[in-house]
Design a protein that fits this description.
The structure holds two protein chains of two kinds.
Chain A (H helix, E strand, L loop, with lengths): L2 H11 L4 E4 L7 H12 L3 E4 L3 H12 L5 E5 L1 H16 L4 E7 L15 H5 L10 E3 L4 H18 L2 E7 H5 L9 H4 L2 H13 L21 E2 L6 H21 L3 E4 L6 E4 L2 H16 L4 E6 L1 E3 L3 H8 L4 E6 L5 H8 L6 E5 L8 H12 L1
Parallel strand pairs in A: 1-2, 1-3, 3-4, 4-6, 5-6, 9-10, 9-12, 12-13
Antiparallel strand pairs in A: 5-11, 8-10
Chain B lengths: L23 H15 L5 E5 L14 E4 L5 H11 L4 E7 H7 L1 H10 L4 E6 L2 E2 L5 E2 L18 H4 L5 H5 L5 E8 L3 H19 L4 E7 L3 H4 L3 H15 L3 E5 L2
Parallel strand pairs in B: 1-2, 1-3, 3-4, 4-8, 7-8
Antiparallel strand pairs in B: 5-6, 7-9
Helix pairs in contact in B: 1-7, 2-4, 3-4
Classes of the chains: A alpha/beta, B alpha/beta.
């Protein structure tokens, strides 16, 4: 199964029952798979007229309490930013998949990580965040998709799965748990708790629009005309973002104990970095890797801790240097932070990374 | 003495923010009368547009959301497909439906989404200060067509019902007006039919309502409705364009 298909199947198993999207390479396996699977589980598949329509269809579905998803690749994700801002403003859960390709503009269909800033710094207008999740294998394309749906519901927030063309296209064995079995305990308990209490009408959601039978009418909107009210609302969002930062940071660390050089990479480059680390370890080099699994919230705590032990960091990205800024900010520049990146659809090779490591020593 | 006229149950007890002579209040009320007549309030979800009617939920007493500018038909699609047994309607103005949301309305109509669209055409952008709308008629003066809309620079007025009625997904398209009591009654009949079509699961229905905006037409409320009856209806004839329901 390719990464895109694993992600789509995981979404179905996580209870996603609405998908809308517009074709764009390299994520076309997702809509194709959804078009086949959704009718089998009584869900909805729509090939929309545009990315704008797709994200707004997801908005409509989400406000009924349905688990809803859209997917695209970089240029299409730019078009979705309007809708993501509205989802954030209306506190609506949704999962948005970005299988990144080379940019800017139409760019190319090669793998890339050049949408990092757009994903983690906002992307659309307004003071908002989305949770950003970075899988690094086909298995994680499945597992983290299930987690994404639970996080979206738990915090009523859009969640972006940030993959790249290689992760979408590559094939690996994958096993599927159910949504509640594979996710970290906190999100699992939350989902069970809500469901057990039977709050609201759809999956324990007590805020949905489904007709006002037996209750007062509800309004879901983002227009807040009074400045003091909009400030209050924004501060409420910020409190929620703080809670997410405090509880949802995720990071895998290799060789935490004795590493002098720490590579930092996510997604596809983290796979190459892992090979480099293992190869150099065999030669006795004290090197490790930190792999952020959540890009927002960024694993600040883990990196701060590492900064007390390691001598320097080397950030490897398929971009001209975007996550590197967050690494520097996380550790308050307490250690030298070096960067090696390839861009335009090019992928860093092991030899290039080893050379970059040697340059640090020199 | 019998009470023969009252506030519909589906309308809230709020004063509207609309300008004197504005048509939105009438159209809001007609929708609520139909909702009451058809007893669908408790399974209804409305979608407010961006424009003067953005806070329609301050006046409607049922579930309402608010879409990004022009995206009402896409949001309606998401809601209706997720809850097929609910009644979903979108309320859109001429800029929302005919300019920034043209793609969304055409494709929702063409898919034959089982939704109801109430399209209020007052030929100007009211909320932003009276700029040209896609439906502004030739020679009409607006904030951005100060010597009158000229075809050469601004193109032609957009005929929404004419355009949509050729799509096989549309079962019902009618243009009505609210410039006098007789036409208000006809408008109500059309709106009711558009909801009835959805109740019976017939498909996509749209009612275009010619509505006065005295403020940005630069006319008194009386002259604004007169202008609709005498001038605007020449450009936008009142008729049933399609009725396959």
């Amino acid at each position: 199964m390719c990464g895109n298909e694993a992600l789509a199947e995981a979404a179905i198993r996580a209870g996603c029952r609405f998908y809308a999207g517009y074709p764009i390479t390299p994520q076309n396996e997702i809509p194709a798979y959804m078009s086949k699977r959704m009718p089998e589980v009584g869900g909805v598949f729509i090939q929309s007229e545009s990315e704008l329509a797709a994200i707004n269809m997801v908005f409509g579905s989400s406000l009924t309490g349905t688990r809803a998803m859209t997917s695209s690749s970089s240029p299409g994700i730019s078009l979705k930013q309007e809708g993501i801002s509205y989802l954030a403003a209306c506190e609506l859960p949704a999962v948005i998949v970005n299988i990144m390709r080379g940019g800017p503009g139409l760019g190319n269909i090669g793998p890339s990580q050049s949408d990092y800033f757009q994903a983690v710094k906002g992307g659309g207008h307004g003071d908002y965040h989305q949770i950003v999740i970075a899988p690094a294998s086909v298995q994680e394309m499945a597992d983290l998709t299930m987690l994404s749906f639970d996080l979206a519901d738990k915090y009523r927030i859009p969640v972006m799965i940030l993959g790249d063309g290689i992760l979408g296209q590559m094939m690996e064995p994958v096993t599927f748990g159910t949504s509640l079995d594979c996710v970290p305990r906190q999100a699992r308990d939350f989902a069970r708790d809500k469901r057990d209490k039977g709050q609201g009408t759809r999956d324990g959601k007590d805020w949905v629009l489904d007709g006002c039978k037996g209750r007062k009418p509800r309004v879901i909107r983002s227009l807040i005309l009074k400045e003091e009210d909009l400030e209050k609302f924004n501060l409420k969002l910020q409190r929620r973002y703080k809670e997410i930062k405090d509880t949802e940071q995720r990071c895998e660390i290799l060789y935490e104990e004795d590493s002098e050089i720490m590579l930092v990479a996510y997604g596809t480059p983290s796979r190459i970095a892992r090979s480099v680390v293992e190869a150099l370890r065999k030669k006795g080099k004290k090197i490790g890797m930190a792999r952020p699994v959540t890009l927002w919230p960024f694993p600040v705590a883990a990196l701060k801790k590492l900064a007390k032990k390691v001598k320097s960091f080397l950030v490897i990205e398929m971009s001209c240097g975007q996550m590197v800024e967050d690494v520097k900010l996380s550790i308050d520049c307490a250690r030298p932070v070096h960067f090696y990146g390839r861009t335009g659809g090019e992928v860093p090779e092991e030899g290039e990374i080893i050379e970059a490591i040697e340059n640090i020593n020199g | 003495m019998d009470k023969i006229f009252d506030k519909p149950e589906s309308i809230r007890n709020n004063n509207t923010h609309y300008c004197p002579g504005c048509g939105h209040g009438i159209v809001h009320r007609l929708i609520c009368e139909c909702v009451d007549d058809l007893a669908i309030r408790e399974r209804l979800i409305g979608i407010a547009p961006v424009g003067c009617a953005v806070i329609a939920y301050d006046y409607w007493d049922f579930d309402v959301t608010e879409a990004a500018h022009g995206r009402v038909p896409a949001v309606a699609t998401g809601i209706k497909r997720s809850l097929p047994d609910r009644i979903v309607f979108g309320y859109q103005g001429d800029g929302d439906l005919g300019a920034i949301g043209t793609a969304e309305i055409v494709h929702a109509a063409n898919r034959g989404e089982d939704i109801t669209i109430i399209f209020v055409n007052n030929t100007v952008y009211g909320m932003t200060g009276g700029q040209m709308a896609p439906t502004t008629i030739l020679k009409q003066k607006t904030a951005t067509t100060q010597s009158g809309r000229a075809q050469k620079t601004h193109g032609f007025p957009l005929k929404v019902c004419e355009l949509l009625s050729v799509l096989p997904g549309v079962v019902y398209a009618e243009r009505v007006s609210i410039h006098n009591p007789q036409n208000v009654l006809k408008a109500k009949k059309a709106i009711k039919k558009a909801f009835e079509n959805q109740i019976s699961g017939s498909g996509f229905s749209i009612v275009e309502v010619l509505s006065p905006c005295p403020t940005y037409l630069g006319l008194s409320p009386q002259d604004a409705v007169k202008w609709i009856g005498e001038e605007l209806t020449k450009e936008y004839p009142l008729k049933v364009f399609k009725d396959f329901a």
